[in-house]
Amino acid sequence: DKTEPRRTLARQAEMQSEVRRRGRSPSPARPGAKPEASSGGSAKAEAKETVAKATVAELEPDKLSPMEEFFQCVLGPLLLLFPAPILCIVLSFITCSPAVTTPTLSGAYAYILKHGVGGFFADAFRYCGIGSFNAWVFLFVFNFAAVLVYHWPGAVKYGPLTPTGHKPAYMDNGIAHCVIYTFMFVGGSLLGWYDLGILYDVFGPTIGALNFFGLLFCGFLYVKGMYYPCTADSGSSGHGLIFDYYWGMELYPRLFGVDVKKFVNCRFSMTFWMLAGVSFTYRSYTMHKQLDPAILYSTLSQFIYLFKFFVWEMGYMRSIDIIVDRAGFYETWGCLVWVPCVYTLHTRILVRSPSGYSWPVATAIFAVGVAGVLLNFWADSQRMMFREKDGKCKIWGKEPKFIKASYSALNKETGQIETHQSLLLACGWWGVARHFQYAFELTAAWSWGLLGVGTKNGVLPLFYAVFLTILLFDRAKRDEKKCLKKYGKYYEEYMQIVKYKIIPYVYEPAQPLPGASRARGPSRALPGGLVAARAHTFHDATRGSVSSRLCPGHLLGLGSLRLSCSLSR
Q: Which residue has better confidence, 397 or 44?
């Protein structure tokens, strides 16, 4: 039937028109919110209108007071939009410019005493600028090569279904990218096309170029997401231009067949971080004529971590960075500029200022960091295997314990709300704490920071570790808000089974739900589309039984800066 594709395209075009008209994404109706049956064309029109109203209501922004909206959706973003680009320029100047005697805070302080605060900032911006010719050429070649490898063949895998019925598809070729690109980068150096230390040599101007491009690119994505979105998961948050630029307008933008978030987040920023260590280690060796064990181990540990990342890339494409955060300043500029500048900081400092560690001390710190990397990979791969095998596997040699959680999403082909199911793993590492993998990731990050501190580099090399600690604790909170909105009572039950958020017996156990009713009875709808007092199941194959539990839904409170102002997803 050739008319069906035309109908599908017409429905999608109608949805996009609704997005542009209302300035925000349509979302699914609340479960059970179906139009009453009637006859004739008026029934179809009434059903369409009912679904449209329910759809818009589902993704309405959280209700904020004027003061809350100002602080969370205006002042908060402004405190990142302006200082963050400046900080990246300053950090690049301190760590790479020979004008600063040592790449430390004391070196920066000495420079300020000599040249003044104004001179310090003026020289920093002059050093980075908006890039140099060599920096722009390097970035063009770096990204062109990444685009070529982007289309390397691989199995097609999918991300989670969005509330508007979009299911993103990805080519699973992360390992191929990691291996091929590494050989290309090192091979180009061996062929004499450039020096292996190029990432350090042009680092300051490269950050200047990325800063300039990143700010403009986010503006482009703002316009594209408003007027030319690729999916219905787009549109204004309803909190003004500043927040929309900061947060982004589109969840899954694509340009010329390339997924913007996959390319920027993975193929550029993670690859830059991975190869920066190799380049920095080489430049340190040529500069000092000896190998510093700290920079070698730091590079090796991070390379293992990032190789692990590309092995697990499909898991990342199902994480909060991709399925919740839109392509705006926070996400896209952050991966274009913040990741190359801040995530390489502790290693970059060691180029001009070796650690002074002995090999045994550096080896001990390295061992702790690698243990964190491997345990983090174990936890991530455990959950990814469980999901891909639909729970038909063993966790730590036993049948898995999990919760079957239902959620609703729009079928964009039919325009109807459909119920889907996910499995929430509640055993293995995911039974110790709900985000226990973050503890392992932080172990690795702090080991890299300690390697950078050495015997004389002060606290600046710890900046990334401190930042990541704040980021991951905040991400755990945001992820749980997202899961509570998506799964409602099912995730509440999961929180009662796996009681701790990140660190067992230390960080934020799940509190008993207020007013939890154990009386069995019919379900009742609560505001926001959650459901109360309906039994659901927790599967424990090790006991050979299924326990039936009751778990009331509850209204979600205001979230963090990003979630409280963004669309409820």
A: 397
Q: Which of 337, 27, 23 is nearest to 165 (CA)?
A: 27
Higher local confidence (pLDDT), 524 or 280: 280
In 396-502, which ranges are E strands? 401-411, 416-425
Asked if 298 and 277 touch (Cβ cutoff 8 Å), the reply is yes
Q: How many CA atoms lie within 13 A of 174 on its CB side?
A: 21
Q: Could you tell me the pLDDT band of residue 19, with boundaries at 50, 70 and 90?
A: very low
Alpha-carbon gap, residue 353 to 102, rounded angstroms: 7
Instruction: Please state, in angstroms and rounded to a whole number, the distance separating the CA atoms of residues 432 and 505.
Output: 10
Res 50 pLDDT > 70: no
Give the H or E element holding residue 259.
strand 258-259
Please give the backbone phi and psi of residue 239, each rounded to the nearest 5 degrees, phi first: -115, 20
Check: CB of residue 512 under 8 Å from CB of residue 376. no
Whether residue 466 has pLDDT greater than 90:
yes
**What span, in angstroms and rounded, lies between the C-alpha atoms of 94 and 121?**
11
Averaged over 25-34, what is the pLDDT? 36
pLDDT confidence of 388, banded at 50, 70, 90? Answer: confident
Q: What DSSP string runs through 51-66?
A: HHHHHHHHTPBPP--H
Split at pLDDT 50, 70, 90, the class of 564 is very low
Query: Which DSSP state fits 336?
Result: I
| Tokens, residue 440 | 């392992």
- For residues 131-145, one letter each, b for 16 or more C-beta atoms within 10 angstroms of the residue's C-beta and e for the rest, the string is bbeebbebbeebbeb
Q: What is the rounded distance in angstroms from the CA atom of residue 23 to the CA atom of residue 6?
A: 25
Handedness of CA 159, 160, 164, 165 (dihedral sign): positive
Rounded to a whole number of angstroms, the distance between the first and last alpha carbons of the chain is 35
pLDDT of 214 over the 70 cut:
yes
Q: Does the pLDDT at position 52 exceed 90?
A: no
Structure tokens at 183: 């050989």
Q: Which two tokens stand for residue 267?
A: 């193929």
Mapping DSSP to helix (H, G, I), strand (E, B) and coil, where does residue 169 land?
strand
What one-letter code names the amino acid at 464?
Y
Tell me how far apart the alpha carbons of residues 561 and 569 are, in angstroms, rounded to a whole number: 15
d(CA 68, CA 55): 26
Given a cut of 50, whether residue 232 has pLDDT beyond it is yes
Question: DSSP alpha helices (H): ranges in 66-132?
Answer: 66-70, 76-81, 83-96, 105-128
Which of 59, 73, 217 has its CA nearest to residue 562? 73
- Residue 509 pLDDT: 63
Q: Which helix (H) or strand (E) holds 155?
A: strand 155-158
Q: Contact 281/290 with Cβ under 8 angstroms?
A: no
DSSP state of 517: -
- List the Cα angle 511/516/519 in 5-degree steps: 150
Distance CA 557, CA 293 (A): 49
Residue type, 379: A
The model carries a pTM of 0.79
